[in-house]
Write a structure and sequence with these properties.
The complex is a heterodimer of chains A (65) and B (317). Chain A has 65 residues and is an alpha+beta fold. Chain A is built from two helices and two strands, in the order ααββ. Chain A has one domain. By secondary structure, chain B is mainly α. Chains A and B meet through α1 and α2 of A and α1 and α3 of B.
Chain lengths: 65, 317
């Protein structure tokens, strides 16, 4: 806390923009979670993986749905 | 002296809800509902996670086109009572920010729909955004009284996109769902325009009652409602319909036709005398009318899932 009553991390802009920062955080976190969930579902529906030396590629599965 | 003195607080710091409002949440609700019905009525089952993710993409894409529309229309929104409180005209969000939000979310929603769903669905969503933001907002809205007719197509795509997520294609059923919303939009909005005429006049938006007069508008409402009725009933005889849909749609369309006939029979003097009671009731009913048609499609999907179908019900496709 310095003489202005501010710690290095407590600028008033953080208060003013709190809903923006929290909202954006939730949106980004949600996006990550969504991609992860879809990935789990798509992989568990079966996907072909074709292996080569030192590398591999995924092939689109026969659409089961 | 801290450099904090250099940041003078803005009149209003944009909050998250202000940006969210750019996406037209009320329109988004309708998009989510119709897209979900399109997806659920389709003859293919979609994993719930994929269904959730793809409908979210469709909703965000529709919201993005709403943000682009608000960016482009800020100059007329400020002149209309109905829209003057939107984030840009009320000074809560700058138009540059709205443009940024609209473009970024457009690109992300289409890209994610491509990855989560399939190319047909993503292509339809991209076309919808382009159609609403460019063809409707930028080009037709201020140029022709047919703006509502053509703009309605943008609102009619979501069930088709939901159907495309499930089936990977386009078919008669999804085209009929498109046709239902497409033909419904003109009578719905023209009824509104009959009693909110002043707004559009102030903003120089060439709505039909402003340009061609209310007599023509009343005629057009009746014409479109007559054309709408068979399109609304026809899904009963496709793979998404059945007797429940047929009976309920028959009643709904009879009521809608009656309302359109009552509007057609009146003139402005009569309407003003009772405060546009018939027009307002027709407008209110039009929302229920569309909602119930899509609820009926859900009901039929539920009945099919429970194997409660009539074996000899005539199906054309």
């Amino acid at each position: 806390m310095n003489k202005h009553g501010l710690t290095p991390d407590s600028h008033e802009i953080y208060t003013r923009r709190k809903t923006r920062n929290v909202g954006l955080g939730v949106v980004l976190g949600g996006t990550v979670a969504l991609i992860f969930a879809v990935t789990v579902v798509k992989l568990s529906q079966g996907i072909e993986i074709q292996g080569f030396d030192h590398t591999y590629e995924t092939l689109p599965a026969e659409r089961s749905q | 002296m801290s450099d904090a003195t250099w940041t003078s607080p803005a009149a209003h710091e944009a909050q998250f809800s202000d940006y969210f409002e750019l996406l037209k949440p009320r329109v988004m609700r309708l998009v989510i509902f119709t897209a979900a019905v399109g997806l659920l009525a389709a003859p293919a089952t979609v994993h719930p996670v994929i269904a959730f993710a793809t409908i979210l993409c469709i909703a965000v894409g529709a919201g993005a086109s709403g943000a682009l529309n608000m960016w482009w229309d800020a100059d007329i929104d400020i002149k209309m009572e109905r829209t003057a409180k939107r984030p840009i005209p009320s000074g809560r969000v700058t138009s540059d920010e709205a443009l940024g939000v609209g473009l970024v979310l457009s690109i992300f929603s289409v890209a994610f729909l491509f990855l989560f769903g399939n190319p047909v669905a993503a292509g339809l969503l991209a076309f919808t955004i382009f159609f609403y933001a460019v063809i409707y907002s930028m080009w037709l809205k201020r140029a022709t009284p047919q703006n509502i007719v053509i703009g309605g197509a943008a609102g009619a795509f979501p069930p088709m996109i939901g159907w495309a997520v499930a089936t990977g294609g386009i078919s008669l059923e999804s085209v009929l769902m498109f046709g239902l919303i497409f033909m419904w939009t003109p009578p719905h909005f023209w009824a509104l325009a009959l009693f909110r005429n002043d707004d559009y006049t102030n903003a120089d938006v060439p709505m039909l009652p402003v340009v061609a007069g209310t007599r023509v508008t009343r005629n057009q409402i009746l014409i479109y409602t007559v054309l709408l009725a068979p399109i609304a009933v026809l899904p009963a005889f496709t793979s998404v319909g059945g007797p429940v849909y047929f009976l309920a749609a028959f009643v709904l369309n009879a009521l809608f036709l009656k309302g359109a006939y009552l509007i057609w029979r009146r003139n402005d003097a009569v309407a003003e005398a009772d405060g546009y009671r018939v027009e307002k009731r027709f407008f209110g009913f039009s929302i229920l009318y569309l909602f119930l048609h899509f609820v009926l499609l859900l009901v039929e999907a539920g009945l099919r899932a429970a194997d409660l179908t009539l074996a000899n019900w005539p199906v054309i496709a």
